[in-house]
Fold this sequence. Notes:
Elements: H1 10-23, E1 29-32, H2 39-51, E2 57-61, H3 67-82, E3 89-95, H4 102-115, E4 121-128, H5 132-137, H6 143-149, E5 152-155, H7 166-181, E6 187-188, H8 190-198, H9 204-218, E7 223-224, H10 250-268, H11 273-280, H12 284-294
Parallel strand pairs: 1-4, 1-5, 2-3, 3-4, 6-7
Helix pairs in contact: 1-2, 3-4, 7-9, 10-12, 11-12
Amino acid sequence: MNNHFVGKSAFAKEMNSLVDKVSLLDVCVLLIGETGVGKKHFAKSVHKHLSGNERDFFIINCKNLTENSLENLQSNISKLENSNTNKKVVTYCFNNVDLLSLDLQNTLLEIIKYARTVKIKHRFFFSSNSNLEEKVENLSFNADLYYCISAIPVNFIPLRQRKEDVGELANFFVREFNFLQSTNFLGFSEEALQILENHFWKFNILELKNVVQQALIFAKDDIVNPSDIVFRNSVDVQIKLNDSENDKTLKQAIDSFKKEYLTKMLEKNGWNQTKTAKILGIQRTYVIKLINELGIRINKK
């Protein structure tokens, strides 16, 4: 079994096994889950398992799809059929299929049926942010298309429900960063990993990767420490820099951000350090440490 999904949870193991199994089946796959959980990664893993590379893998956003786009898609399938090519498989991953109009749904269904008749294997994956069964019941989604694209439904669990995978993924992104940027980061301290594991990952793996990359950019040592981690999208905080702040060093700018960020969170939670720490996904002792280091004045009323 290949290690397509990083992690040690039962979910990660199941996904790795499922990629191998789905690769053997020439059917459409419906990917169900929140933003950033790995739906596109699953489709790409199946494609790579079949073809040995990532070429001929196409992501199509149904939100921007038009009749002309679908006509071009069918035209491309026809061209491949009539060409002398040694392609093993061509894969299409349709995001937000629930946003297609009924007319486009009918056209898409015909294209899928046509692709089944050509020599070159075409694989189709679909993702939706809506309950398609409910849409079928209220007649806003083509029932035939639904049963066609949901031959294999794959459900993805949010990252916050499998905390044992957070550290594995974070260190994977460190190794990836080292490879791409020619750096030599060793990973995360235990306290930093605990902060990551306790965070509420609203945008799942996508958000984790972004946080890890930012931490590596700002890290002062070859080990990422809690002070290097900033959850910029955790709350609605707007930081406005005055012209006088443009001359600050990077460390000063980061400390300024941390101070304003933490102050706003403490104010929002009535200066309750325990509650603030829980929301930020860090320990209360670290909140106290930051208050002292950054010179935040406690303003209890």
